[in-house]
Amino acid sequence: MRALPRPAAPFLGFGRLLRRYGFAVAPEQISGFMQAVTLLGPRSMSDIHEAALATLAPPPDRRDEFEVHFQSHFYGNTSAVVEGEADEETRIKDDGGADDERTEAERSREGGELSSALEQLSTRDFQRDDDRLTAFRRKLSSALPARRSFRTVRTPSRGKLDLRRSLREIVSADGDVPSPLLRRRQTVPRKLLLLIDVSGSMKLHTADYLKLAHAAVQGAGRAEIFTFGTRLTRITSALRIRDRDQALARAAAQVDDWDGGTRMGPTLLAFLSVPRFSSFARGAAVIILSDALERGDHAELETAMRRLSARAFRLSLATPLAGDPRFRPATAALRAILPDLDDLIDGSSLTSLTDFILSLARPAPTASTIWKKVS
Amino acid sequence: MPELTAETVATSPEAVAQHLAASCYLADDSLSTAIFLAIRLGKPLLLEGAPGVGKTEAAKAIAELLGRDLVRLQCYEGIDAAHALYEWNYQRQLLAIRHAGEHEIDIYDDRFLIARPLLQVLRAPEQRVLLVDEIDRSDHEFEALLLEFLSDFQISIPERGTIRAAAQPIVILTSNRTRELAEALRRRCVYHWIGYPEAEREAAIIMLRAGDVAEATARAVAAAVQTIRARPLAKPPGIAEAVEWANAATILEKGGSPWPEAFRRAIGVLIKDEEDLSYIAPELGRIVEEALG
Question: E-strand spans in B141-292?
Answer without folding.
Answer: 154-157, 161-164, 170-175, 190-194
